[in-house]
Amino acid sequence: MKLTAFAAAAAAFLMFGPSQAMAGRDLDQIRARGQLLCGVQGPSNPGFGFPNAQGQWQGFNVEVCRSVAITIFGDPNRVQFVPVTTQSRFPALSSGEVDILSNNSTWTLTRDSNVNRFNFPAIVFYDGQSMMVPRRLNVTSARQLDGATVCVQPGTTTELNLADYFRQHNMRFTPVVVADLDELRRAYDSGRCDVFTNDFAALAAQRTLLSRPADHVILPERISKEPLGPVVRQGDEELTNIVAWTVFALIEAEELGITAANVEQIAGSSTNPIVRRFLGVEGNMGESINAARADYARQMIRTFGNYGEIYERWLGERTPLGLERGQNRTWLNGGLLYAPPAR
Amino acid sequence: MSSTALAPPKPLIPLPGGTTMRGVLWQAGLAIVVVLVGWSLYNNMLANMAARGLQFGFGFLNRSAGIPIGEHLIPYTPADTYQRALTVGLLNTLRVALLGVVLATILGILLGLARLSANPLLRGLTGGYIEVIRNTPLVLQLVFWHAIVLQLPSVRQALNPLPGLYLSQRGLKTPALMADTALFWAAVAVVVALLAWWLLLRRERARQEATGDRRPTWAPGLALLFGLPILAGYVIGAPTVEWPVLAGFNFRGGLTLSPEFFALLLGLVIYTSAFIAEIVRAGIQSVQRGQWEAARALGLAPGRIMRLVILPQALRVIIPPLTSQYLNLTKNSSLAVVIGYPDLVSVANTSINQTGQAVEVIAIFMAVYLIISLVTSLLMNTYNRAVALKER
What we know:
The complex is a heterodimer of chains A (343) and B (392). Chain A is an alpha/beta fold. Helix content of chain A is 37%, strand content 17%. In chain A, the strands form three sheets. In chain A, strands 1, 4, 5, 6, 7 and 13 form a six-stranded mixed sheet that branches. In chain A, β9, α5 and β10 form a beta-alpha-beta unit. In chain A, α3 runs antiparallel to α12 (296-304). Chain A is globular. With 392 residues, chain B is of the alpha+beta class. Chain B contains twelve helices and eight strands. Chain B has helices at 19-51, 82-115, 120-134, 138-149, 181-211, 218-236, 259-285, 289-297, 302-332, 336-339, 344-355, 358-387; strands at residues 159-162, 165-168, 171-174, 176-177, 241-242, 245-247, 250-252, 255-257. The interface between A and B is large, with 61 and 56 residues.
């Protein structure tokens, strides 16, 4: 018996022995696993990522991850969605619990540095922090909020900007900090806080879930820049490239006027070399970024449409969120979206 | 079974020496395995951190944290360091744990006694309470209490049961005593009064031992306790009181007990008291019937039987499991994250998120909880030795 115990201990020692690192290992691991582990905002972020009645994740951020899966595997269903909170997301990514975050994370210097070691391959949504208040408070500007109680999610740029903003304007506030977004929204809805702060789009999303959405207004100030996008770990340039050129493909398609409806027809008839290369009719762009197929962009657009179509489907003016395109138009239409040339 | 089965088994590996020697060898072997496993885990961690480009170190503790914390017992602003932020979290944990332990003990003893009551209604109700509370998850209870507390009136319709006391969704507001010299001398007066009362009690006890006669001390005691601070107030001046005033969005001034703190305290006290009640009941039932009968035969009143005869003997059974409940309460306070009370774990989680130093921060809060638990155990074990059966 004692010998078996000894053997078990020795086996445990061998199993927990030092592990080895390899180059590009994140992508290798994803390919070997056959699935992309995508961290999304849990439990629910309407429009951006939420489970439907069948328990399937859908939304803007979800389709970004599915598009990445198309580039890696040629299959949008090879994704497992892992709900993470704002507090748990970065530890989940750095420990390898997820391969990629697609949950409205803001690109900042500290996160994209030697301190936290993450990469932000591309921006999918330009946003700014805002404040929501009940209409009956008759507040019209964030500058009138001295002494207010503010509901905020922990571990976010929002939390840090909030402290900066009140400090900058010499105002005081009491934070109410709850990690669970549902629990936080309930606290605001019941009147625990005077103010609910988050990125504008996220606030609009949360407003749809309040008991009386029309009784709440979002104040005009945008107190910060919030460039949001998918996040990966540093150290695997191949994966970073794949994510970047997946997002760029969605934007490029809109720039070129390619949609889910016309992509096949354009691929068959277009003589424009830029379009032909982009859709994989000629050239080897897919191979250059290690995509599963040469026509990954074409497959992506056939499945989900271009950036504008995805936006309008989940966030646009015909959805409960009702967000204008605003800064999230392509540069051709006066927005900030700009894809580097695919050549 | 044949009689040969009684022969001593042959050792699997022939080892030198007698039984003692073999024992020592096995112990040494086990110690080596433990050290090797620990060392390999540590190396594995360093290797994995290196592979992800993370550096191990505690330098981040002196960086500015930037995170706002709603409740702090010591002055704190977002410009302070991570070290200070974590200290604020630790103090919040200790505050709820200490208060929780005291209140859960009082409520638990009352419930335990009620469970043994001769009144079937009281017995049944207590039994039902204990079973419901013990058999539902604490997290659900916390969310429940939090939701209840949030149903209180809004801050502008705050309940005002006593002057200066306001109860609303924003918590309980009370007047605060300002820390000035008058408050210091008032506090000194209270301490002096308590000391005098204790001396009085000692004198009366000695008197009872000598003469069998004893005079009650509560009247002069209370006179001292209230008289001395009032006298101090007349001589030095009364301490300044800061009253809460509704200004703008919230009350300004005064002390605040936040709804999160209140919900957490309520949840922990109610949950733990159900377990303590059962421990108290078991302790009392472990005292033999003969003790009750003998005490009754001496003509003691029921209250004094419990206090002088039964409880001292029951305590021997009660203390060790009670210690475990205290430890549980302290550790369960980390569920504060769910309802947004800024305890140690909540602040630590945010620090991990901002700095990426997960291993270091988790090591810090594991060490802190370990120290809190060990100190609690030490105190309770000392107390246990004091009440244990002394065999002379």
